[in-house]
């Protein structure tokens, strides 16, 4: 698949409390490793004028577009949008270039991401402009006047987690330059939907909704003054409330649909108590309604679903997006279930010229149908997965694991291609036990075992068999209970942590800390209740209408667990109601060490014991579910007796960037990485100041991060996993003092990894094996850059220059580059731009000479394991750093040794030399044959026929081709050449010698 990233700045300027020059890190690019499958999509739309064009808006993945009926999807919001959460998208009826997008998903889950207003494109999504309503919160609907695309309506639900006066119905007459709030009820009541009357856009219907989430409950609905359907007949100047035939008292979420072919018909699906909930229909533009169905499937989890649409050609065909997707062909009286690629349905759009052509979305992505929903396009082409905690195993290449929201299992994907495969994007996502919430934690030393979780249900998954053993603490189903009555309260993302001192010691958290040394066969509770446990927060979730008790709102549970790597038995925990606890004796005694000045009740997203000082630890606290989006990062250096806030308003992280995770680098003390709701930050001075560290990373919540084998590994809530390869430069002090002198950073050790046979067009786009070399070029530096790689004998392996003019200027031993014995080539990726640069050397040494200058000396063998030196030349001055290339541990397990590889390379070099010799012979004869005559000409032609293949299909493979064939044979893997190769080489040497003798006589 392919998708486009825009790299424009989205962060505000920072003022640091200490003197630290902000470095431009754009040379350090992240890469996605998928998975290549969709996450939750909350809104979809299309345009009748371009039937193959559709848009999707993901809950955390931004806006994506397809021009080929869903065969490929491309992100079009990266670099423009300040939030990845999309609530509504609309395309102008009379101009497919005009697109409006309202941010802030209307499915108010606890992990919903805040909206930041409305965006507009006038070139079908190539570029976007923010046009206002930044504080409107979640947006339920955007409607464009079909007669004038400058007139746009917005239904603002508001802040999902607190009261705000920006809730209401908005209207613009000038394409978003100015907005007017035309309907407002209160700071607790917003609007989930609005509809314009076909044929008369001055007639408007709006659905009011009282909605708010707390960490411990869902509020959806209120009294009749706090909800219902409103109508205006004069473009929003005046409104009346429609009540005839509708629920009289408590009313919740409502979604509306007006028939395009009969504007008298208005449908409303309504959340209401008992049998009052369901589908209502008006045949007189809302003067009166009649309930036509109380099917519970229409109002299943209404805060999350509740969407109806009509067939644009038939008002009796009604679609209900909930769980499941339902269809009625008799005006809503009876319903049949429709099959879609994934459950939990949110939106549907049908082409008005051909309603069999439609797009529908759900928790697995968006899918297009050409036949009315009988078959659908794939969801494995839109990498918008919502992931929780990331874990990594210790195999090579390492794999990444996480709970994937809306998936039936935790998942694992590789950091590099682990094998040859036909369909990489889908073939390398594996199930790894548990369920959507996770985590999935591979066992150190045995990556085939994954400790997994499903909403408090602990299991041991074996990748070899694909089965999991279940060992639930308490062995009781906690669904549907009031949490105060539960023996063990588990969050749906109940944490699992393996001791860094003993892989058989596994910790698991309810409100207590549990421990097993038998893979769950027996559990020991090693703590008291480590939460705040306020009685008024222990309630049945879902009020005042719809119960919703899945564990997501279980408050007062453990949310994070970490044992110190420096001191066994030193364990830190954080709860989702703001309590930090520590034990120094393996759980015998505990101490509440919650920061005294920290606002209470926040979710302790991460605890991080220091890698250098056992008394030191860091925490990241998230309070946005309480209506407070400030970042809260703290550190202690005395076991929690006192804490310091290291995310102040002035030290680098914006005030509305809720903090999700904080990790300390295991190599450089004081180097910290922070993941927030809207991106990445780095600190080099232990949190005194922070710098943005976003680069090409899309704006999306960073849910967790790990530093592993020199890589920065991320999970996100909407864009899958990302990796920043090789952060070794960040660990070197020179990164903070880049001024007037060039700097060559010491490269990290590199594993000599052979890339398997995988299509290069596949997603993800894994980089090829390389030594990553970071260097700094000062401002004002002129002249090209040269990089030379030397082996442990101080012999030159390769010289790479940044521009072609350097080739002749740097080669003094010969004038004819075609005869040079030094392998030199131009690589424009060896940049000489001022600032930080990154180059990837592919480990290749000199290949065979070729008459084609672009191929000459290329495609040589990978160098042997060993010690090498990078030598950077800038402005005539050189800088050197040594590094190691080490054997692939899998190759070692195969029985190969360094001596074997050196023997293979020696054989490869002999074949390369022979190939160079034969290529040069062919080139010389081809030049001579243009001038030769008589017998000499015939002899040359005869010799050339033996050297080179004839043109045409399936020619006989002649000598040059045979030598290339032999090189190919011994170069595809780490292997001893074999006796047949040795014998064949000897034969080919004789043949080349014979031909040379023939033409010399």
Descriptive account of the structure:
The chain is mainly beta. Helix content is 9%, strand content 33%. It contains seven helices and 65 strands. A six-stranded mixed β-sheet has the order 58-65-64-60-61-62. Strands 14, 15, 16, 17 and 18 form a five-stranded antiparallel β-sheet that branches. Strands 1-56-55-54 form a four-stranded antiparallel β-sheet, with no helix packed on it. A hairpin with a 7-residue loop joins strand 19 (254-258) and strand 20 (266-270). Helix 4 packs antiparallel against helix 6, helix 4 (898-929) runs parallel beside helix 7 (979-1000) and helix 6 packs antiparallel against helix 7. It starts with 30 loop residues before the first strand and ends with a helix.
N- and C-termini, Cα separation: 58 Å
Sheet with the most strands? 6 strands, mixed
- Radius of gyration from the alpha-carbon trace, in angstroms: 32 Å
- Strand fraction: 25-35%
In short:
By secondary structure, the protein is mainly β. Strands 58-65-64-60-61-62 form a 6-stranded mixed beta sheet. Strands 14, 15, 16, 17 and 18 form a 5-stranded antiparallel beta sheet that branches.
């Amino acid at each position: 698949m392919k998708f486009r990233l825009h790299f424009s700045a989205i962060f505000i300027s920072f003022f640091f409390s200490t003197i630290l020059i902000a470095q431009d890190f754009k040379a350090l690019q992240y890469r996605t490793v998928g998975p290549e499958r969709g996450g939750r999509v909350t809104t979809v739309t299309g345009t009748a004028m371009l039937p193959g064009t559709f848009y999707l808006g993901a809950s955390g993945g931004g806006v994506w577009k397809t021009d080929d009926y869903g065969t490929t999807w491309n992100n079009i919001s990266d670099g423009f949008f300040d939030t990845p959460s999309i609530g509504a998208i609309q395309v102008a009826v009379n101009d497919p270039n005009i697109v409006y997008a309202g941010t802030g998903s209307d499915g108010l889950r606890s992990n919903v991401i805040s909206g930041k207003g409305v965006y507009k494109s006038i070139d079908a999504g190539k570029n976007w402009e923010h046009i206002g309503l930044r504080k409107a919160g979640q947006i339920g609907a955007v409607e464009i006047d079909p007669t004038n695309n400058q007139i746009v309506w917005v239904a603002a639900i508001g802040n999902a987690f607190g009261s705000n006066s920006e809730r209401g119905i908005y209207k613009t007459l000038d394409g978003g330059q100015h907005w007017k709030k035309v309907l407002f009820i209160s700071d607790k009541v917003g609007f989930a939907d609005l509809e314009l009357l076909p044929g008369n856009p001055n007639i408007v219907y709006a659905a009011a909704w009282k909605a708010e989430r707390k960490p411990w409950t869902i509020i959806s609905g209120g009294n009749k003054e706090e909800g219902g359907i409103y109508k205006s007949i004069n473009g929003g100047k005046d409104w009346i409330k429609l009540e005839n035939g509708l629920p009289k008292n408590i009313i919740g979420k409502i979604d509306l649909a007006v028939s395009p072919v009969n504007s008298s018909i208005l449908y409303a699906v309504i959340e209401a108590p008992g049998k009052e909930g369901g589908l209502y229909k008006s045949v007189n533009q809302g003067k009166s309604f009649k309930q036509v169905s109380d099917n519970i499937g229409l109002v299943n989890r209404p805060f999350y679903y509740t969407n109806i649409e009509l067939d644009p050609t038939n008002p009796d065909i009604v679609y209900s997006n909930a769980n499941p997707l339902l269809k009625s062909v008799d005006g809503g009286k009876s319903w049949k279930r429709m099959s879609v690629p994934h459950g939990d349905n949110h939106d549907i759009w049908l082409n008005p010229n051909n309603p069999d052509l439609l797009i529908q979305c759900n928790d697995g992505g968006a899918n297009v149908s050409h036949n009315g929903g009988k078959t659908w396009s794939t969801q494995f082409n839109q990498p918008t997965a919502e992931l929780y905690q990331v874990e990594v195993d210790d195999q090579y290449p390492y794999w990444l694991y996480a709970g994937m929201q809306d998936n039936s299992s935790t998942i694992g994907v590789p950091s590099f291609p682990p094998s040859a495969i036909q369909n990489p994007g889908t073939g390398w996502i594996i199930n790894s036990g548990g369920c959507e919430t996770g985590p999935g934690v591979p066992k150190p030393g045995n990556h085939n075992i994954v400790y997994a979780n499903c909403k408090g249900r602990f299991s041991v998954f074996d990748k070899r068999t694909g089965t999991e053993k279940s060992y639930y603490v308490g062995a009781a189903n906690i669904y549907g209970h009031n949490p105060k009555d539960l023996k063990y309260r588990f969050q749906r993302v109940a944490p699992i942590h393996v001791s860094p001192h003993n892989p058989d010691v596994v910790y698991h958290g309810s409100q207590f800390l549990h421990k097993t040394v038998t893979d769950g066969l027996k559990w020991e509770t090693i703590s008291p209740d480590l939460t705040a446990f306020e009685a008024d927060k222990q309630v049945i979730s879902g009020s005042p209408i719809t119960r919703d008790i899945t564990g997501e709102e279980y408050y007062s549970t453990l949310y994070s667990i970490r044992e110190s790597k420096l001191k066994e038995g030193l364990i830190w925990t954080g709860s989702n109601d703001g309590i930090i606890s520590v034990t120094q004796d393996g759980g015998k005694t505990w101490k509440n060490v919650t920061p005294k000045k920290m606002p209470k009740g926040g979710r302790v997203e991460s605890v991080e014991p220091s890698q250098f000082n056992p008394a030191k630890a860091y925490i990241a606290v998230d309070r946005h579910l309480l209506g407070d989006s400030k970042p809260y990062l703290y550190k202690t250096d005395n076991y929690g007796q006192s804490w310091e806030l290291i995310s102040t308003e002035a030290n680098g992280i914006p005030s509305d960037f809720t903090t999700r995770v904080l990790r300390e680098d295991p190599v450089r003390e004081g180097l910290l990485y922070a993941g927030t709701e809207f991106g990445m930050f780095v600190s080099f001075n232990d949190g005194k100041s922070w710098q943005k560290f976003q680069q090409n990373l899309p704006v999306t919540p960073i849910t967790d991060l790990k530093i592993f084998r020199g890589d920065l590994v991320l999970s996100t809530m909407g864009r899958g996993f990302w990796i920043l390869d090789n952060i070794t430069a960040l660990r070197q002090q020179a990164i903070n003092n880049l001024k007037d002198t060039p700097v060559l950073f010491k490269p990290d050790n590199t594993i000599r990894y052979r890339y398997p046979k995988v299509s290069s067009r596949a997603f993800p786009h894994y980089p090829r094996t390389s030594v990553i070399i970071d260097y700094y070029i000062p401002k004002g530096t002129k002249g090209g850059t040269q990089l030379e790689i030397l082996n442990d004998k101080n012999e030159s392996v390769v010289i790479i220059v940044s521009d072609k003019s350097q080739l002749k200027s740097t080669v003094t031993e010969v004038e004819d580059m075609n005869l040079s014995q030094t392998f030199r080539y131009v690589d424009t990726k060896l940049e000489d731009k001022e600032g930080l640069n990154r180059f990837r050397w592919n480990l290749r040494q000199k290949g065979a000479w070729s008459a084609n200058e672009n191929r000459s000396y290329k495609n040589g063998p990978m160098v042997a394991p060993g010690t090498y030196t990078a030598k950077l030349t800038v402005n005539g001055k050189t800088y050197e750093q040594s590094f190691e290339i080490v054997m692939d541990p899998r190759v070692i397990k195969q029985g190969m040794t360094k001596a074997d590889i050196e023997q293979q390379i020696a054989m490869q070099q002999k074949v390369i030399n022979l190939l160079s010799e034969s290529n040069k012979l062919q080139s010389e004869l081809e030049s001579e044959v243009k001038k030769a005559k008589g017998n000499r000409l015939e002899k040359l032609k005869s010799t050339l026929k033996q050297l080179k293949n004839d043109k045409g299909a399936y020619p006989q493979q002649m000598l040059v081709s045979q030598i290339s064939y032999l090189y190919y044979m011994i170069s595809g893997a780490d292997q001893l050449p074999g006796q047949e190769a040795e014998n064949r080489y000897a034969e080919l040497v004789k043949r080349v010698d014979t031909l040379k003798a023939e033409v010399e006589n």
